[in-house]
Amino acid sequence: MDIEAGSGALPYAPGSGRPVPEAEPALVGRWRAAGGELVELLAQVRERFGGVAAFRLGPVPTVLVTDPDAVQHVLARHPERYVKRAHRARLLIGDGVLAATGTAWKRQRRLLQAQFTGPGIRRYEQRITAAARTTAGRWEEYARTGQTLDVGREMRRFALDAIWRSLTGHALDDGTERELDAVAVVATALPTLPADVTDAPDAVAADLARIDAVARRAVEAARDGAAGPDGPGLLHVLIDAAAEHPEYTGRLIRDELVTLLAAGHETTATTLTWLYLLLDQHPDAREEALAAGDEGSAPRRQAVQALVHETLRLYPAAWILPRHAAEDDVLAGYTVAAGTDLLVCPYLTHRDPQLWPEPDRFDPRRFSAPDGRPTRPGAYLPFGMGPRACLGTQFALRESTILLEHLLPVHTLSFHTIPTRAEYGITVRPDGPTPASLAAPRT
C-alpha cells in the first residue's frame, strides 16, 4: 500500500519552515472502515511520514509527534508554546494538579513537588514496604491453599494500599478498597464520554458519589487529627496548605486527593500486571534479574529496575500526551500554526526501530547493559518529560521495585488465561482478566 502525503498540508508562513506532511484521507478512511484503534492509525502515519506528521479525523489536522528531538522541543524546551488545554479525566479529578493549568498548576505543583523528590520518597518508603509485605503475605496464603488470584486485581490492591498509606498514614481496609473500586470504573468509562463533559452522566454518577464519600471521610479524619501509625501523610500537607493558601478549599483538597489516588495507583498496577505477563513469556528474564546479585544488593535492585523500565518502554504509563500550540512555531523544520492540536506519543517513540533495535522484543538488558538504550532525551519518556512530567515518577518506580523484591525471589506465576489485546484508554491495559496460580513458595 503506497500512501502519498499531501491532501491538504497544514497552513504555514512562507519561509518559516516546511509544511507538515499530511496523510491522504484514504488512509484515515481505511482505518475507519476497519474499526481500528487510534494507535493503529498513528502507527501508520508515523511509518509513512516520519516523526512529525499530520492526519485529519475532522476538518482540522492534528500533528503527531514521535521524533525524540521534536518530543523534547514540545514537552521540555518550549512547554509555554505547547500547552495542555483540558484533561479527559477532569470529570474524576476536577482541578487536581494533573488537570490544572496556568498559575494554579504552578502553585499546586510547587506544593507537591517536595513530597516526590528523593527525601520525600524516603519519607514514605516504610509505608510502601508495609504494603508490599501485606501483599507478600497474601501470596503466601494463595500458594499454600492453591487459590486462584487475579494478577491485575492484586497489583491494584498493592498500589492502592501503598498510596493510601502515604496519603493518610493508615493501611487500606477492605471497605475502603471496595469503595475505591469506583476509581477504576470511572477511569475505564472516561474515554467513552465527551471530552468536554462536566456533569456526571448517569453511567458514572453513583461511582463518583462513592469516591467523594471516601474522600470526604478521609479529609474529615485528617482534620480531626487522626494521623496514622506512621504519622501524617500527604493529605495532611494539603490540609495544612489551606491555612496559608485560601485557594485550597475543601473542593480542591478533594480534587488533589482523588488525583493522587487515581494517578498514584492505576499506572503502577498496570505496569506491574504487564511485567508479570511479559515474564510469563520470558521466564529467563526473571532468573537473570535474581542472579544479578544477592537479596538487597545494588546489582539485584538495578536488575529488577531494568525489568520495570523495559516494561514501561513497551507499555508507558503515559502512552499519549495531547498538547495545543499556543503560538506559531517551527518544529523539526516544519511550521506549526497557533491553534494546532498535537499528539505526542511515547508508545510509538518507544517502538521506533530506528531508536530501539527489535523494538517489540522484551529485553531488560537495554536498561542494564552499557549503551543498551538511546541517549537522546526524547527517546524514553514513560512518564512524560519537562515541567509537566508525572510528579509521581520516582514514587512509582520505587514502589514497583520494592514489591518485586518481595515477590520475585519467592513466587512464580502460572497464568490460566492471557489477555489477547491491549486496551488504549487513559492508560494501556490488558483487555481482560489475568487469573493465575502460584507455585509453592521457595524455602
Q: In one word, what is the shape?
A: globular
Instruction: Please state roughly what percent of the residues sit in beta strands, choosing from under 5%, 5-15%, 15-25%, 25-35%, 35-45% or over 45%.
Output: 5-15%
Which structural class do the helices and strands define? alpha+beta
At CATH level 2, the architecture is Orthogonal Bundle
In spatial order, strands of the major sheet run 2-3-9-6-4
**Uncertain stretches:** 1-15
Number of domains: 1
The number of helical elements comes to 15
Question: What's the SSE pattern?
Answer: EHHEEHEHHHEHHHHHHHEEEEHHEEEE
Q: What is the CATH level 1 assignment?
A: Mainly Alpha
**What is the mean pLDDT?**
91
- Strand tally is 13
Rounded Rg = 22 Å
Fourth-level CATH superfamily: Cytochrome P450
Distance between the termini: 57 Å
Helix content: 40-55%
Biggest sheet: strands, sense, closure?
5 strands, mixed
The CATH topology corresponds to Cytochrome p450
General description of the model:
This protein is α+β, with helices and mostly antiparallel strands and 443 residues long. The protein has one domain (66-438): Cytochrome P450 (Cytochrome p450, Orthogonal Bundle), CATH 1.10.630. It contains 15 helices and 13 strands. The strands form four sheets. Strands 2-3-9-6-4 form a five-stranded mixed sheet.
